[in-house]
Records
---
Amino acid sequence: MSADSTALKRRRAATAGFHLGAGLLATLWLLPIVLVLVTSLRSFDDVAANGLGSLPHSFTLGNFRQAWVDGGQQRALINSLVVTVPCVLITLALAAMAAFALSRYEMPLRRTLLLLMLGGNLLPPQILLIPVSKLSEIMGIYDTLPALVGVQIGFGVGFYVFVLHGFMRAIPNEIQQAAVVDGAGPWQIFWRIILPLTRPALAALGALAFTWIFNDLLWAITVLRSDTKMPITAALIGLQGQYVSMWNVIAAGSVIAAAPTVAVFLRFQRHFVAGLNLGAVK
Amino acid sequence: MAVLTTTARKTPAVTPPSGGRGRGPVRRTPPLVLAFVLIPLLAEALWVFWPALQGFYLALTSWDGVSPPRFVGFGNFQEMVHDEVFRTAAIDTVLWLVLFGGLSAILGLAAALLLQQERRGVGFYRAALFLPVVFSLVATALVWQAIYQPDGVLNQILQGVGLGSLRHAWLADQDTALYAVIVPALWRQIGYVMVLYLAGLKGIDPSLYEAAKMDGAGRWQRFRHVTLPQLRSVNAVVLSVIVIDSLRSFDVVWSLTRGGPYHSSELLSTYMYSTAFQSLRLGYGSALAVVIFVLAFGVICSYLVRAFREAD
């Protein structure tokens, strides 16, 4: 009886210790986020008079309006979505096609092709920046959103091919053979059988690809020049220059820039984490 | 090389490749299937392979982007030897690799060990650590810029706990700028590494721990002799992710300091970008990119070798 109760006590103490430690860590991690959220809701005079770290003495949504309208965040967010959504869809479609062909059919050089495609994605982007910006000039699409869409697709697709290949390869061959016996062609097999079975992986990669492409800065500032074309990441740097030391507006801009990916994360949290692991541990 | 040997035993081969593979009746690949491969391949060839080849060629030229590139052989690389900024950037890149890479691996593993057990509330803690991963590095940078301001939160805290003498213009001081930039990058990376390790820890057979306990192994011994060896393949993945990510790091430095003050937080990636697109020295910029490529080459190869084994 007493032995039981001491064990129980020890277990309770360990649990309390865990929550204390983990809670502290989580608080530390969330603190910068809370700080930005609070700052984005304070007025400029309040921040100027009381400092960034003080408790808020004001409440306003005006910063968001200022960042959204005057700071050009609205247009930038639209640009970001116009680039990100087609990029995710096209990249995954192309990657699924290639992965299907490479994993379900015997073809010459298929392993070489797979690694070539993956290898392209592992290259440091720096080696591509200058030629890509020149290439888009030659193609007459420099400083247009299609250039950004093109390079994001071309650079990203190899990685998704590799991950989806690993996933599709695991689908038993009997399913495919049964379909072949029934007279199904490659398209039917792809569309009716393999793709539906790949849905979990596609969801996971979709969530991942959305944040990666949405958060990109380097490709955007390589193929775009006009402020009106820039996606939200580059616009945020512009905002930083436009509203020097107006932390309330910059904070509001940061919140706007982060909101879409946070929404995707919260909505697809499980897919998201699964995606990271698919990509890495596979 | 260690990377290669550790992964060999990672997964039992799913289908043992038989010698007769592909030698059966010669069947032509359906044209549609060929197109399925060729279209994505062409997209990648246009935007990646062809530009990459050009990039290597441009590294051997002097080019302002207007007049045609002039071939200079290894002139750009010779220039690097005497380029002070290049030396700073190279040293900073190595520092970045060691500090950002090393700390994110160690702290990510520590966080995963702390939060590995399924228990009440653990989902919240994991989500809290992971949340910054979804922020863009630019947004992350701006958040921390506010913290680092002379009248920002960090200095206020230091003042508050009686360490006012440590107050600092963190990003404007050559001695602290690089480290001040690493912290936000770590804040964002640790959650990512934690997720990778959490999956790895989940894959460890619990009976191994039971057996170790039976043999009287303490906590540390179980970690040292069960957990670490079992995590070898994850370690290999984390290592490649970290090296590739470190060499790519650009956004956070660019948004916080642009490599300054006086190049004190310059990385090869930021130096390459400003050389190419601000000084318009495209040949020299390409040569800097080649240096980055060479640094990443070993890791890329080991990653591909691992992929090659798995693709079998």
---
Amino acid sequence: MMETNYTFDFSTALADRRIPNPILTASGTAGSGKELSQFFPLSDIGAVVTKSIMLKPRSGRATPRMAETPSGMLNSIGLQGPGIDIFLENDIPWLVSQGARIIVSIAGETVEDYAVLARKLRAVPGITALEVNISCPNVENRGQVFACNPTTAREAISAVRRNIGGELPIFAKLSPDVTDIVSIATEVVDAGADGLALINTILGMVIDTNTMFPRLSQKTGGLSGPAIRPVAVRAIYQVHAALPNVPIIGMGGVASGRDAFELVLAGASAISVGTATFGNPTAAISIKEELENILIEKGFATFHQAIGFAHREEI
Amino acid sequence: MEMPTINSRAQQMDAEVISNKRLGAYNHIVLAVNEIATYAKPGNFVAISVGGAGSSMVLRRAFAIYRAQIRPDGQGVMELVVAPHGNGSKWLASREPGESVNIVAPLGTAFGIPTEPVRALLIGGGYGSAPLFALAENLKTKGCRVDMVLGASTAAKIYAPLEGKRSVNSMTLTTDDGSAGTQGRVSDVLPSVIEQNQIEIIYSCGPMAMLSAITDIANRFGVMHQCSVEESMACGIGVCMTCVLPVEGRDGITRMVRTCIEGPVMDGSKVTWSKSREIPDGVWGK
């Protein structure tokens, strides 16, 4: 229990799982938690969303992988990681030992990859939910971004649903780089997603005007940070309006409690903190404290009451 | 269960600027810090938030720590040498005494100090010389002979404070334009310096091309080479995965490793310098 005098309920639900507060890390900005545990206890946040893990070890892309942009950054990591087997052997037991709640993010190159990853995770204890990353922009061609096409988005989510069994909630992570995000969201929910994670980075590019070449080795990268927050607010608002009962993990440029509150008002049931952690290792903690204070000041008795509050009818 | 040992002494804190002085092309900045001053070792770096509240610069900037110590009055101080070339470093270089900056330090690996007295050569490119002076003092207290080679494009970009010069046995300068020392690059004078002084270990800090050239020469002479690499980073604490280099591990396998966690000080002979901007064939997970 929180050591406070008031009875504010900060807990939130991710499908049928309840977590004590709605602040999460964003996948790919917190590794598997070890590095951040130097700066705060991982059990203090709602959950650690791990860096998207693939079937096999992956070197990622060549450098330069990063370019700072106005109020944001481009990254082009390319899903570097140890692969699911080493991840399950090392990272999950360590996170469990820290008392962290865990949301595992998975990414595949094929529908079959998603199916195999889901089978490997099905019986692993200690996991709160799965985030299915079908929207990483740093792949060789746009055809590989499952979330850019309703059919491929459905196939990937359906493969996870069939193989994970009925127990573990799955959240489909979608790209805002589509004409109609509501139609993609409807499709993946129909395919068995319990919730959605909105939004992944936006495909962008920087050209160095001194060298007159693209700044990143692979030319394009994913834009993140406060620059994309209005895109996240719009996507969450549109999807929540269409699917009000589907929980949304909201993310996109949240750097303060005020920013997190904005995404909650749009319809987010939880908030992932990503790029802000690069600038401030304790960003998730300060955002959590600021958000709780804002909600209390605004007169909410529970966090739940604030979800989608911007959709209410004007009086 | 294994406990985290990464950056286990690192702290995040607001540090007041005690002084900020222009020295040639650089700014020498002294920050008031707490006990982290005793943990910081030559080679470690500090990640500093720039631009102030609401800044559009969302990423920290990494700087090698020039020196860190507890003063006789008990005040911990951390000194930096900053080259104001981008918007972030310009912001930092314009801080006035009394203002505060948010720092995370000490981060990364430090230069390894030999247990026996050895003949060491320290090589710095531009402001890369900064962490080498505290290293020189450490090596001197271990009874090492310390020679130094500093290079830069022009004389104003060589950072060599008077008190730093006192801690070395010899100092060789090179500049691209010949405005100080020998005209040319540090790699031009290295073979003779290594031979004359019978160098056993090289420590270096500077641009990647310089570190790569030093590695070739060190390998040719069979001299160990610890270098501090400078790869652009977003976080400095090991979570963003942007600052990677292909580096061979103890198991003989080359991986893309984070220079903020497994560096910045690395064994130069293990870095695939010729393909540092690629994912070389044979790298784990390619």
